[in-house]
Amino acid sequence: MGKWLKAEWLYVAAAGIVAIVLLFAGPFIGVADNGDFLRIMGTAGLNYYDAGESYEDRFFGYAHALFAYDGFLRGFYPSTQILLVVLARFIGGIANGEAFDIRILGGIYTALLLAAGYVAITAARTEFRIVSALLALLMVFVFGDVGYLAYFNSLFGEPVSFIFLLLSIGFGLKLARSEQPTVSLLLLFYASVLFLTCSKTQNAPIGIGFALLGLRYIGLGGKGRRIRAWIVGLSAFTVLASVTMYAAAPKDFKEINIYQTVFFGILNNSPDVEGDLEKLGLPQRLSVLAGTNYFQSGTAIPQNDPSLKEDFYDRISHFDVLGFYLSHPGRLVEKMAYAAENGMSIRPYYLGNYEKSEGKERGALSFRFSGWSEFKHRYVPNELWFVVAFFAAYMAVACLEWFKARALGARIKAELFLLMALTGIFAFLIPILGDGQADMGKHLFLFNVCFDAMVVSSVVWAIYRIRKLL
Question: Any idea what the Cα angle at residue 220 is, between residues 401 and 239, rounded to 5°?
Fold first, then answer.
């Protein structure tokens, strides 16, 4: 009986109940499509259930529980999310050959989230039961929020980034606690990192940081050639996967991103559009596109105009954008301030949660179990000074813990938390450098996951230190 009263099992029970209530019982709750579902459906063999559905009903306003089965690889979008969607599609085909129910995918995500919480709580166990209980409670309250869980009943890629970041940190902590890494635990850690890294093109560089940290596990008693070979090989493979993921991004996807980055980013509200174009090495005639986005109609020069290939798409890269911001730090700070304004919302408030059949107003949202997301959205400062101060304080404490630690495992734990903060910083900057100001709040999702994980770990660390003093 005592086993089931442990914090990790209480978490599984509580988080499972929350997920069942939100996702599988009562009215259907998901997230409406903003157009992103198409690339996943085309690869994974799905399509819209109602072919005659209007634009207003299909996009933005209403979530959808059912999708039609269709042929695979009608398009190609490289993402580890495809593996999970195809698995769900296979199960769905057995359960109902007429239509695919997205809640099957939601069930897979839920099982993975419960596993992530279980791993994290067992990996963070201390001599004080109250600390484990607090961690379990916070994980239910923060990561069981409808802002996170509603994504599970959708074809967005956010759940993969969310769950596998938690799994990567959890398995990383378990490795740090081990006297000697085992091959099975190493495989679980690197598999989680690969799912995170390859879930979205923008996540590709994250794998390099985790691969470098992975090399640190060689020192944990892993002096045997076999373990060392596994660690080095898996780290090298992770780096290769990161590079390949970035290189494999579809051409049209790259063109969309660079258009958004320049015209809806650098040139959006620019004080000197012509001057910025000159510094970027671009023709002055493109000034008419300043402030436009790729999906906007009626632009002076259509986004797919053949002349843009030579004058724009072939002449600029994200490295040029990075160089521009590094030489104009004030402009980068302005964009960072804009990101901070949009950075404390877990959920996209412009995408509805309910099916049309529920009779709710178009774009209606569910606020069941939304305590954390609403508190964060309303009361946590969405200003750059706060983001900088919080991350600086968090990283300073992690560095202090690193210097105080004597054992390698304890130092690796501190490095994991530092890496989580660095991942958050990266996730904060990459939308600016990679997509301008387009859909900024949604593109800061991984930043929100890192921020929330940092909040949870900070509270748990503080209570642990206080308990040690008593």
Answer: 90
Q: Is the model's pLDDT at 279 over the cut of 70?
A: yes
Cβ atoms of 136 and 9 closer than 8 Å? no
In DSSP notation, 376-428 reads HHHHS--SHHHHHHHHHHHHHHHHHHHHH--SHHHHHHHHHHHHHHHHHHHHH
DSSP 257-270: HHHHHIIIIITTT-
Q: Which of 408, 405, 406 is nearest to 176 (CA)?
A: 408
Q: Can you tell me whether residue 100 is helix, strand or coil? A: strand
Q: How far is CA 103 from CA 19, 70, 413, 457, in A?
A: 11, 18, 36, 30
- Taken as a whole, the chain contains a residue count of 470
Q: What is the pLDDT of residues 375-415, one digit of tens each?
A: 999 999 999 999 999 999 999 999 999 999 999 999 999 99
**Alpha-carbon distances of 313 from 149, 257, 275, 321, rounded to whole Å:** 37, 10, 19, 13
Q: Where are the beta strands (DSSP E) in 118-167?
A: none
Q: Kindly report the pTM of this predicted structure.
A: 0.94
On whether the CB atoms of residues 460 and 124 are closer than 8 A, the answer is: yes
- If you compute the radius of gyration of the chain from its CA atoms, what whole number of angstroms results? 23
359: left (phi over 0), alpha (psi -120 to 50) or beta: left
pLDDT band at 226 (very low <50, low <70, confident <90, very high): confident
Secondary structure of residue 59 in the 3-state scheme? strand
